[in-house]
Amino acid sequence: MNKEQMEQTVQANMQKIYLYCVRRLGNAAEAEDVASDIVLELLRSYSGVRNDKAVYGYIWAVADNLCRNYWRKRSRYETVEIPENYTEPGAATPEERIIRKQEISDLRRELSLLSEKYRAVMIAYYIGNQSCEAIARQLRMSVTNVKQYLFEGRKKVREGMNKQRDLGVYSYAPEKFTMDFWGSSSDGYRQLLDRKLPGSIMLSVFDKPKTLEELSLDVGVAMPYLEEDVGKLESYKLLVRNGQRYHCGIPVYDKAFADRVNEAARAAIGENIEGIAAAVEKGKELLKETDYRRRQDDDNYRGWFILMLICWEAMQLSESKMKTRLTFPLLENGSRGYVMGKRGEIPTGLSGIYGMYTLRRDYVRILNFNLLTDNVINPFGKGVRDVLCACEAGLGETAELEALSAMIEKKAVHIEDGRICTDFAVISEKDYLALAEKLKEAVDQVAAIAAKLRDHGAELLSQSMPEEIPYAGETGSIVCMWSLMENIIPAMLEKGYLSKAPDGQNPTAFYFKKA
Hints:
Blueprint: H1 3-12, H2 14-25, H3 28-44, H4 55-75, H5 94-113, H6 116-127, H7 132-139, H8 143-161, E1 177-183, H9 189-192, H10 196-207, E2 210-211, H11 212-219, H12 223-235, E3 239-242, E4 245-248, E5 252-254, H13 255-287, H14 299-321, E6 337-343, E7 350-358, E8 363-369, H15 384-393, H16 401-409, E9 413-416, E10 419-422, E11 425-428, H17 429-438, H18 440-464, H19 472-495, E12 509-513
Parallel strand pairs: 5-6, 11-12
Antiparallel strand pairs: 1-6, 2-4, 3-4, 7-8, 8-12, 9-10
Helix pairs in contact: 2-3, 2-4, 3-4, 5-8, 6-8, 7-8, 13-14, 13-18, 13-19, 14-18, 18-19
């Protein structure tokens, strides 16, 4: 850098140098003297600045050194007792103290918005008083890189302190965000969203892709606390980074979408409910020819079994009749399926569908409908699998006593002749498949209805999703499938074709014997 360039740079920064001295020294007159010394030193030593980009770092290093020297010299002077009513010339006024407090607050805010590497270097140097060499060893980088991070970090902080920062809506009014899953295993996914912050992150980037700094402001959380959650969400591809910005990696639907598919499902069911009810009556007669059994069985339980058979088989068959193709993509936990988000409060008639859950030989199918029972059974719950395996093996005990007690209370199992036995329906796989074949006409009818509705749901959700979000149409078809199944329950109840179980059992849980 030549002398003329330094003169121009100093001239452009005179006011900043003076204000810097005022803040450091607390005295306007003394600040003028020290600022003059700084300018003289800069004009005298311009040839030492070999890189034009480093000039601002050099200016503030000189300013810092000369302010420190001033304080050292002043500390050598004799001290005298200060009268109680004495007011120091240049002492901070209440207004100045408020401004200073705000500046400190802004500085802390800007440090919290720096990315991890910049933040680590700045804190180590300015707060930890570590040398560049020590920071380089600690962070495993070169000394040159440390100095570059310091220079750029100071610049980012100065620029940020001059900005008006506005916290986003998710910092003070977070929306509810929940996750739905359809596939072979949700391991790892549900644990990511057991707090409000990850949900707010998902909705924030769904609204608009954001940098980490923008996201930090929008959710009102400093980056040191945000980075871990963002990293976890990114590792499961719920967040996807494109350059410096994150966008949502899964489809998200809201109440407006749910209302539209529910309305379409109710209309279709209403037009076909008599035919479905007639098929249920036919199935109950056919059921007598099978090895179906249930403890405390009655005509109503058998009706629910046939209805769920028709619905389940129809939903599977509908996939071959839809225009929408389901690919069941490979997920980050190694399973295949779909992860989707729900925005806001969305009433649902379903509290879980678990199908083809394999034990040692047999399997269960559990559909939990809120209208039918509060006794929700989750075969993935702690110890439930062991209890079901004990049923399968005809055992009288299990190590999972807490799970056994809960399942007895929910009327899912009971103890009989010293053995753990199921309370819900049991049928062999062979007889189930034969029964499904005999009800093929009804299954085809419901499958055709489902295929049309699921294509409608796929189109609706695809239209409302940003282009970069994958599997929106496939997700829409799955939500529509759930909607059809949950809306068929109130239709059957309202028409009086079926009723709730009087003893609180879940009438839509079944156990299939392969042997």
